[in-house]
Amino acid sequence: MKGRRVTDDAKRSGFSRRSFLRGGAAGALSGGLTTGLLTGEAGAAAADSEATETVGPGPVDVELEVNGATHRLAVEPRVTLLDGLRDRLDVTGPKRVCDRGTCGACTVLEDGRPIYACSRLMIESAGRSITTVEGLGSPDAMHDVQQAFVDNDAQQCGFCTPGFVVATAALLARHPAPSEPEIEAGLGGNFCRCGTYKGIRAVIAGGEGGGVSGG
Amino acid sequence: MADYSWPEADRRAQIGARPARLDGPVKSTGFAKYPSDQNPSGLLAAKILTSPHAHARIVAIDTSAAEAMAGVRVVHVIQGEGSEIQWAGDEIAAVAAVSEDVARDALRAIRVDYEVLPHFVTEEDRDRAPGARAAGERAEGDPDAAFATAHRTVERTLGMPQMAHMCLEPHGQVCSWDGDELEVHASTQAVSTLAGQFATELGVPASQVRIRTEYMGGGFGSKFSPDRWGIVGAELARKAGAPVKLFLERDQEVTVAGSRPSAFARIRAAADEQGRLVAWDSDSWGSGGLPGTGQTPLPYVFSRLPNRRTRHTSVPTNLAGSRAWRAPNHPQACFLTMAVLDDLADELGLDPIDFLERNLDLTGRPDTYREQLGIAAEMASWKERWQPRGRTRAGAVQRGLGVSVHTWGGRGHSSNCDVTVHPDGAVEARIGSQDIGTGTRTIVAQVLAETFGLELHQVRVSLGDNVYPQSGPSGGSSTVGGVTASTRRAAQDALREVLVHVAPRLEAEPEQLLAEGGRVFVDGDSSRGVSWREAAAQIGGAPISVQGRNPGRGRLISSGVGGVQIAEVEVDIDTGVVHVERMIAVQDCGLIINRRLAESQVYGGLIMGVGYALYEEWIPDPVSGRLLNADMEFYKLAGLVDVGSLEVHMMTGPGYDERGVIGLGEPPVISPGAAISNAVANAIGVRVPYLPLTPDRVLDALAGRGGPA
Ligand code: FES
Ligand code: FES
Hints:
The complex is a heterodimer.
Chain A: E1 4-8, H1 17-29, H2 40-52, E2 60-66, E3 69-75, H3 81-88, E4 107-110, E5 113-116, E6 129-131, H4 133-136, H5 144-151, H6 161-174, H7 180-187, H8 197-205
Helix pairs in contact in A: 1-2, 5-8, 6-7
Chain B: H1 24-28, E1 44-50, E2 56-62, H2 64-67, E3 72-77, E4 84-85, E5 91-97, H3 100-108, E6 111-116, E7 133-140, H4 143-149, E8 152-160, E9 163-164, E10 172-178, E11 181-186, H5 191-202, E12 209-212, H6 227-240, E13 244-247, H7 250-256, E14 259-260, E15 263-271, E16 277-286, E17 308-314, H8 330-348, H9 352-358, H10 366-379, H11 382-385, E18 397-408, E19 415-421, E20 427-431, H12 440-452, E21 459-462, H13 479-506, E22 513-516, E23 519-522, E24 525-531, H14 532-537, E25 544-550, E26 561-572, E27 578-588, H15 595-614, E28 645-651, H16 672-684, H17 695-702
Parallel strand pairs in B: 1-13, 11-12, 16-17, 20-21, 27-28
Antiparallel strand pairs in B: 1-5, 2-4, 2-6, 3-5, 7-17, 8-15, 9-14, 10-11, 10-13, 15-16, 18-26, 19-20, 19-25, 22-23, 23-24, 26-27
One FE2/S2 (inorganic) cluster (FES) sits at the interface of chains A and B.
């Protein structure tokens, strides 16, 4: 069989996470496919900081608060908040699943707002306060939402659960009795493979084990 | 010799109850450490370079630039010069480095020259497949004569594509060597069998390989082996002298780490004037990537259909080999069969439930299905709400109902469990099984607590480690039967030993004693008893430790279940968008250990079913041979708002409980594709021949075009 001779040399494309993030943000602003948190202000902020300040590619000092503790560390600008949390700070509650703003498994709160940690650079979170699922409660002192996930069996393998717990807590903090469109906006960006949505619905609505508001 | 059994219904405290899963709190707080969360000190990150070509020969590979990069520790060529690559995504080389970003940089610096060869990735086009081969032909009765005299015949070409397992935790592991002892934190469904497979590949004794899987993020049939990346990860760690974490990137996970085979078929089926099935002829084909596929079990459930002929063709493609996917072969066979039977019912002018009922003697479980069809129809208000096919409402949005039936085995696998009773009353089980999200940890604890008359918090279960007694891989709904049977046998034996020590103190025979409610007492005179703690203190200074096994004596488990599902959908005939409004599942699984977790399994099956019915498919690009949707944007899972209302009815009580424990992971995921497709046909009046039921396929069917698969 006679074949075509090609060389696979990825350097040529110069494709990197940074160019992806830039491209993704631009795409979202022009009504592209990104459904997640790169839309709107986060995307604009990324584009802005690119225009006004150049950092890296070497490590940059960052200070941020994670679950109440202040951390100072030097990270390359390309390191995402998610990878920084997981690999540098050993905060492994947020999970990496799609790594590009689709699945919600990496959801954390930044200054109280839910964001996809995979789609944020750690340097962008400098000076901010991050709360992960571990920061909401612990097995012996669970947050109401965490307790409701247990009571309503809203988890099987549990890999999507940290993201869902954080997103649900954020949703219910804003809308204690959310409407269907509010649920769609709040949890439509999280996916579960095992199929735990029935339990998550019960968490929101108050099911067998009692919802969050229903106690 | 003592026998083993489950307690009678009125004596059960734990079995059949609804306790919350024991590992719920650690999971919902993020404290559970999954294999991919392990960060031992000195950890290196590894990444794998894969082939962008679906079929190629490696002409040259140059890793020198990667090796020279700062932070790179090991570069390992997996398939070198001269290797023939058979699918895009196949592993070429791996790098271990100080961080993932550095490892990715190093992959970009590896230069590979390929000779690109012709590929084939579109198996629905069987006639163009270069490697298609006959894979079985069977005949019974005289199909030709039966078709010739039949009252009504339908003929359809139907199919469903390959789809991904899409485990949220990707495949992979963290490997650490201590001398020539290897420890692997693996995301696996097979804690007890993995060590031997690592050992053979790495040239160390299996006794020196430790496998640990406390938690894992989903497998669905795709995580039974170390895989090439497991062996490579261990090799990198050995060469680097440091622990190595190697988990697949999402695109790799979708492309190489698990898919369900496709199934297509041209089917003819016929019935007589009484609506009895009389003939079947199917010509099926499908692919599971390079290995092709085996025969799909057609006709499904109605396997005693007289006068049938089945032929199957296996179609290899240049795609990574498929893996077992929840209920292997069944969802495909179910869709192909139930869609044709539904069309035949329409042709006969019969309500499909009526039609199925007329033919139940062709199944292996007519009584079960009859009862379940009755319950499901009642739950769906089928009699009042079902209407013959076609548009029944004004406007674009049409409603429809569809039904399907399925079956599964689910016998417990081989399992060993050590149960220990300590003199202070502590009770623990150690079992080399794994909790893949189904609740294994919780049900083992329930069996322990039930047997010793204790509360769940008073017993301890250790699993997820191959230092514990061998227990089978979690596949085919075999775990619940295996682990509950081995645990029950060990626990009953251990309890008998305790009772022998307690009996003299209560001036009774051991056989007269019961352990219930935290006490041990004489049956019929509960005042003659002691607390569990006191009872345990009688055993002396050393703990009692007993191993239980499955299979073994006593009727604790069995196999063979039926299930019925009904789907209700809305279809917008202007846009082709299908929405599942409601799914009803009626399912038996023998004796249920935990009602809550059993229901969760069924809900999960329904939800996964909505996914593959409406959204999920591998889309290989015929030109490049690569998947066009190796991600989560274009490979869409069902979301929270996509699944409608879900109702589950578990068959329990007399007639079911005494069958013992039967597995439940597979059955509920079998019927959704068929039930939803049938509901759509009922709503719009025509069959959409292919899954998933995407808007373009729905619009094609409405326009009278079969449309491309
Ligand atoms: S990992 Fe961040 S959205 Fe999927
Ligand atoms: S519980 Fe397994 S992915 Fe959601």
